[in-house]
Known about the structure:
Low-confidence stretches: none
Number of helices: 9
Strand content: 5-15%
Helix content: 25-40%
Distance between the termini: 69 Å
Amino acid sequence: MNTHLTTALQLATAGVPVMPLSADKRPVANCPACTNLACGARPNMKTPGPCTCLAPCHGWAAATTNPATLTAPAWASAWRQAGAVAYHPGGAGLTVVDLDHADAIAWARRELPATRIVPTTRGEHWIYLGAMPSANAVRDGVDIKSAMSYARWLGPGTGTMTDLPDAVRALTVKKPSPVRPVTVPLAAGGGECRHRTPSYLERGITMAEQRIREAAGGVHATVYRTFLAVLSAHGRCGCLTDAHAARLFGAAQAKGETVRHCADAWSNARTALGM
Length: 275
């Protein structure tokens, strides 16, 4: 039996979802129909294509603990091509902190609790109990491999595996973009002015900022709808200034929106209103 397949079956028996990996660390198509992504899968292998074989047939989504699948004739060519075995850490309830160089390892030793360590060709894998979203380049030389990702199997490693710490989870938390001043197109003026007092406009901007800040989900949609409402109520007479727009953009950026998305949402709202 193929050596890599033997390793894969041993891991599968232990409850670790596995898959074949090529020598250049890319997932191998597990059937001829999917060679060179002919099935329509995306190049990053994170979205398997509409395969007609043992779907999904490659990438992290194909990692399995089922011996019948691993030894199926449809996967025979994949194991012949395999240069290594990979596994889906998130599927096994694990998170791999992939440290690519000595500085990254030194950082982990200072900042993270000790856990099981597996040496790699360039650095180390620190493996914790618990799954989380994956992310690349969370800091220099550090990747997180867990849900919707795969890691190369390099052996069991040494040390006692410990629970996933908050310090690792925090690495993937999206930080708000720094608020930058922007210039956005405003209405040319000339429409009927509804702002009989300055407080009317100020109250509208303040309420819009609050609506964006309090968005619990669907931030993109909330920002667009809020921009649309502000422009509809305050944007036709020329009283809305760059300073007002910058406040709204600032509130959106504090929720993690990019300046480009803010500008697009503002422009799309103006277009929708015929401005």
